[in-house]
């Protein structure tokens, strides 16, 4: 069961909405084209910055660097655009499979929540301690095989049994299906305005949940401090010392993203922390809201995008072989999946195997001395503070433009 459709949605949430509306032939009123993922990113709450570290028993400590709104962005987007939904959910396997087939047979394309780690085309080993339910789009089924759109340009094939297993991993989202109606065009301007206001608040105000210094400009300062601090137990020198702990913070592993992936390949729609895509949104927003001043903020976020790319390169410098090779492998497997889908799985598995070897090598053969590691962290801090300053100017321009 094949389809010639190429999908342009890249994120689990905004990308899945984009793909669903595009397949249904829904057009945005201001372009006459499908609702862009840039527009959906902006409406969902836009970009942000969040910084966390975690350490769980049996796993290396890791970094989470959030570059976009994570506070219910999917439901927020649907509500703001007035997209009505039809939701079906059951706890029975046979009904779950029947519901999926029936919806597809009617010509609709449902979102369904699947465990990221259980999807065969990801090529990941099963791990009882790892799961994550993400929305993907079902586009066809012959009863035995389901075709889905999941961030790749290519349609992906999954057996019905594997799909059902992935859909049933977590109780809250178990066997849930959601079909979407067209947005209400009269709500578009209001949705764009609310999205911009939320982005501003995520940078400047207390977040809806969590400590203040985990989000926005306060989080930039916290990370900048932790990169050079030598006493705080959450500092990189203490939490991510040279060896596999520092490697894991920078490059991650096949199952856990490091800082480089958070910037360029994981939980983003595009590289450079989605700042370029947000600039595209602001260009659209300037037309929708009839506020040309938003283009000035867009230019600032393009400057920020360039700095984020610089930050990503500084995380895994090319002139340090272990780190440079890791960056090439991470980027290669990402590009393979985006461009070739599940046909590239053998090559993706080779990338994962080599990355696992490099992680293991870093434990005993890390390429940086403590002094060199401190220099790398100091360079990261300098770039990060430049990003913060540029985005402060960008957010000020946003605030002025929408008054």
Question: In words, what does this structure look like?
Answer:
The structure is a single chain. The chain is α+β, with helices and mostly antiparallel strands and 403 residues long. It has two domains: 36-80 and 184-402, no CATH class; 85-180. It is 50% helix and 11% strand. The chain has 15 helices and eight strands. The protein has helices spanning 14-23, 37-43, 73-80, 93-105, 160-167, 188-204, 216-228, 236-239, 244-251, 259-264, 275-288, 294-315, 321-340, 345-364, 370-402; strands at residues 47-54, 62-68, 85-88, 111-115, 133-141, 145-149, 156-159, 177-180. The strands form two sheets. Strands 3-8-4-5-6-7 form a six-stranded antiparallel beta sheet, sandwiched between helices. Strand 5 (133-141) and strand 6 form a beta hairpin. Helix 13 (321-340) runs antiparallel to helix 14 (345-364). It is globular and about 65 Å long. The N and C termini lie far apart (52 Å).
């Amino acid at each position: 069961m094949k389809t010639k459709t190429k999908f342009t949605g890249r994120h689990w949430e905004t990308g899945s909405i984009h793909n669903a509306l595009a397949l249904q032939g829904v057009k945005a009123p201001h372009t006459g084209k499908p609702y862009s993922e840039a527009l959906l990113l902006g409406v969902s709450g836009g970009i942000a910055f969040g910084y966390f570290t975690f350490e769980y028993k049996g796993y290396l400590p890791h970094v989470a660097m959030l570059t976009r709104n994570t506070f219910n962005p999917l439901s927020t987007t649907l509500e703001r655009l007035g997209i009505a939904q039809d939701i079906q959910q059951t706890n029975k396997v046979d009904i779950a499979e029947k519901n999926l087939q029936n919806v597809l047979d009617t010509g609709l394309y449902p979102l369904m929540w699947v465990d990221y780690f259980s999807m065969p085309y990801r090529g990941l080993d099963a791990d009882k301690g790892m799961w994550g339910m993400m929305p993907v789009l079902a586009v066809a089924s012959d009863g035995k095989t389901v075709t889905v759109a999941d961030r790749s340009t290519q349609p992906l094939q999954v057996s019905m049994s594997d799909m059902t297993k992935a859909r049933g991993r977590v109780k809250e989202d178990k066997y849930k299906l959601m079909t979407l109606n067209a947005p209400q065009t009269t709500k578009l301007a209001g949705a764009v305005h609310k999205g911009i206001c939320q982005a501003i608040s995520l940078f400047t105000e207390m977040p809806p949940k969590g400590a203040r210094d985990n989000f926005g400009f306060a989080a930039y300062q916290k990370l900048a401090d932790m990169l050079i601090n030598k006493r705080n137990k959450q500092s990189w020198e203490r939490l991510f010392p040279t060896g596999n702990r520092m490697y894991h913070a920078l490059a991650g592993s096949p199952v856990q993203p490091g800082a480089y992936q958070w910037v360029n390949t994981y939980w983003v729609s595009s590289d450079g922390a989605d700042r370029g895509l947000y600039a595209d949104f602001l260009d659209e927003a300037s037309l929708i809201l009839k506020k040309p001043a938003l283009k000035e903020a867009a230019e600032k976020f393009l400057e920020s995008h360039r700095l984020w790319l610089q930050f990503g390169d500084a995380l895994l410098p090319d002139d340090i072989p272990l780190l440079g090779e890791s960056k090439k492998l991470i980027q290669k497997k990402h590009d393979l999946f985006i461009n070739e889908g599940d046909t590239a799985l053998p090559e993706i598995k080779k990338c994962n195997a080599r990355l696992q070897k490099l992680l293991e090598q870093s434990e005993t053969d890390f390429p940086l001395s403590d002094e060199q590691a401190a220099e790398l962290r100091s360079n990261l801090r300098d770039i990060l503070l430049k990003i913060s300053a540029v985005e402060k100017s960008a957010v000020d321009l946003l605030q002025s433009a929408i008054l």
